Amino acid sequence: MSLFIRLWNEFDDRAGFSGTLLPVIRHPVPPRLGWEYVLGSATLISFTIQVLTGIALALMYVPSAAEAYNSLQFITNNAAFGSVLRGIHFFSASAMILFVGAHAIRTFLTGAFKYPRELNWISGTVLLLLTVTMGFTGQLLRWDQTAVWTAIVAAEQAGRIPLIGKSLAYFLLGGENVGGATLSRFYAFHVFFVPALIFALLGLHLFLVIYHGISEPAKPGKPVSPKTYRTEYSQMLKDRGVPFWPDAAWKDAIFSTLATIVVVVLAIIVGAPALSLPPNPSIVGAVPRPDWYLLWVFALFALMPPAIENVAIFLLPLLGIGIFVLTPFFSNKGERSPLRRPWAVGIVIIIVVMVASMTIAGAQAPWSPDFAAKPLPVSIIGTSSGPVYQGAQLFYEKGCEYCHMISGQGGSRGPNLTTVGTRLTKNDIIIRIVNGGVNMPAFGGSLTSQELSDLVAFLQSRK
Amino acid sequence: MSEEPSEQTNIPPNPELISRRQFFNRLILALLAVGGVLMGIPFIGFLFEPLIRKFTPVWRPVGAVDKFPIGSTTDVSFVDANPLSWSGVTANSAAWLRRDSETQFTAFSVNCTHLGCPVRWVAGSQLFMCPCHGGVYNKNGEVVAGPPPLPLPRYPVRVNNGQVEIQASPVPITAPFSLP
Ligand code: FES
Q1: pLDDT at A322
Q2: Of A65, A430, B153, B154, which sees the most CB atoms within 10 A?
Q3: Which residue of B125, B174, B177 is in closest CB contact with A398?
């Protein structure tokens, strides 16, 4: 034992750990930091898991447009631990996005971005954006049918940027079509470019945390004044500071361990995200959807008024990201406590409610036709012959059911027609079908008069 | 602690020495810049290589003329114009091909002009429907519902030796404010 200690001492004498690193991890922090302070380290730990599982997956993943899908099939279905590893990589990515978001909310609500930590906030917000970029490029590396169309959607979005839009779109795809270069590029972005930026900014972010110290819990009635803040802060540390390690770090350790356990358990139980069909852009039956954390953006694209969309598609993110990143420039002094900053609380509530409800909307996508709709059974139609029955067949064949629900079957794009017979007269129904409506195309041209009368008979029978 | 000579301690105010130091300072920065340019040009150039690469449209056969009944709209697939040899199935593209008459065909892009999702032809209602944000086009590709800002783009199509041929083109990008 003493030999071990002697060896360590000799090593440490040459390596200089106790002289340099120890003071860093034992740097004084304000006393009694709450559980809300664990979110940053939890983000860091999930990032570390991403790096480790990412490196592991790279042992077998083939970043080739032709082979990636097969290698993923092998990793998922044949390789020992493959499905679990992919699962961890996916759920830890989700955790990282949740934690980085919660960390930003916590920092905003407690005014921790104020003087002198403006740069902490700015580097942190850029890290948040890079985290989402990692998620997006990562979904693409799944290189199935959805991934291919996601690449095209990304290119189309880039296309709306003035002047350079088109070039940027083809730049992202690595050519004028999805092809051999596309996956390699996104692989390089996901594995080299973006992580390099993350490491650089993470270094800065952590350095700043040590340099400025961890912000003390916000107290109402104790505003930040740039003139006196630093003196007061260092005095407080001198009087009451405790070493980060272990006095504060134990909470981080407990939380991160719990989070990791949840991630691994989910990876084992739920497994890796399923792959859809092969990445063949000529299979047109695709239904591309983003992963959960971007469903709200997906919903936004569907719900935004088309008239403003061309402009809004690039102006909104620009404005949103600009305001987000530059928040400290709007107020970097004054009250920190959320109890004295009702506007800050209001903004957070509005954003969280909006993003949550749009995420739900995005998951349900009621604006999308339901291509999986099945013909209505006789039990719903109520008869197996005659005009009503014929009309029901037409209701399916003509695609009405993709958008209109009847007795729980069909899409939600247009009004539910389960009881349309009680709401509309025969003439109303005919007018709507023939001329169309707000978001409904006119069907007058694609129906014979016999078909129209059968369809109307069927709809009138819906009571 | 540090061993660099500091200006206040043992160095006399020697204008010549200071200018020497300034010279080194600038020399290092200049060398860094040279290195940066030497590395940077090929790096950036390679990054933007796809934009420099020449695109030449190519006619691709998609099937014999008789395969397509007059009035029908079917999806056809073809190989992209200049695929890289390792593209595998990603080198394929699709189009919706309508036979208008004995000799006339119309080829629609499958890419929704909103955000590029693959539209489907619903024969019963004679509509193209987008699976993403609810865009709907009529049989001529004009928008009848939803967010798409433009009609479905069309590809050049011709009949050659009894084969229908589509001109494999870049994936259409809706870029309203872009340079041509
Ligand atoms: S991509 Fe077709 S409606 Fe959005």
Answers
A1: 96
A2: A65
A3: B125
Residues with CB under 6 A from ligand 1: B 112, 114-117, 130, 132-135, 146-148
Kindly report the protein residue whose alpha carbon is nearest to atom 1 of ligand 1: B115
**CA nearest neighbour of A294 among A72, A187, A139, A96:** A139
> What residue spans define the domains of chain A?
34-364, 378-460
Gyration radius from chain A CA atoms:
28
* Residues A388-412 pLDDT 10s: 999 999 999 998 999 999 999 999 9
ipTM of the complex: 0.89
pLDDT value at position B3?
47
List b or e across B156-173, with b for residues whose CB sees 16 or more CB atoms inside 10 angstroms. Answer: ebeeeeeebbbbbbbbbb
Do the chains contact at A369 and B131, CB–CB below 8 Å?
Answer: yes
* Displacement of CA B154 from its chain's centroid (Å): 17
pTM of the model: 0.92
Rounded mean pLDDT of A236-253?
96
- Strand A242-243 with A28-29, pairing: antiparallel
Question: Which helix (H) or strand (E) covers residue B109, if one does?
Answer: strand B105-109
Residues B17-40 have a mean pLDDT of: 93
How many other CB atoms sit within 10 Å of the CB of residue A94?
A: 17
- Following DSSP, what letter does each residue of A246-271 receive, concatenated? IIIHHHHHHHHHHHHHHHHHHHHHT-
Instruction: Report the run of H or E that residue B79 belongs to, with start and end.
Output: strand B73-79
| Chain-chain contact of B117 with A286 (C-beta, under 8 angstroms) | yes
Residue numbers in A near B92 (CB within 8 A):
280-282
Q: What is the pLDDT of residues A176-205, one digit of tens each?
A: 999 999 999 999 999 999 999 999 999 999
Minimum-distance CB partner of A180 among B51, B86, B120: B86
Q: Nearest Cα to A30, choosing from A336, A318, A296?
A: A336
**Is cis: bond before A281, omega within 30 of 0?**
no
- Whether residue A246 has a cis bond before it, omega within 30° of 0: yes
Would you say A275 and A144 are in contact if contact means Cβ atoms under 8 Å apart?
yes
Say whether A160 and B175 touch across the interface (CB within 8 A): yes
**pLDDT at residue B121, rounded to an integer:** 95
Distance, in Å, from the CA atom of A86 to the CA atom of B79, rounded to the nearest integer, reads 32
pLDDT the model gives residue B13? 64
Q: Which CATH class is domain A378-460?
A: mainly alpha
Percent of chain A with pLDDT strictly greater than 70: 100
Nearest-neighbour CA in chain A from B4: distance (Å): 20
Residues 6+ apart with CB under 8 A from A394: A400, A447, A451, A454, A455, A458, B124
Q: Is the pLDDT of residue B7 over 70?
A: no
CA of B137 to the centre of ligand 1 (A): 11
CATH class of A34-364: mainly alpha
Give A218 or A437, the one with higher predicted confidence: A218
Nearest CB to A171 within list B50, B90, B117: B50
Q: Which amino acid is at A171?
A: F
How many whole angstroms separate alpha carbon A77 and alpha carbon A31?
50
Say which CATH topology domain B58-168 has. Rieske Iron-sulfur Protein (2.102.10)
- In Å, what is the CA distance from A186 to each residue of A63, A84, A150, A175, B144? 9, 23, 11, 13, 35
**Confidence tier at B48 by pLDDT (50, 70, 90):** very high
- Domain locations along chain B: 58-168
pLDDT of A442 higher than 90: no
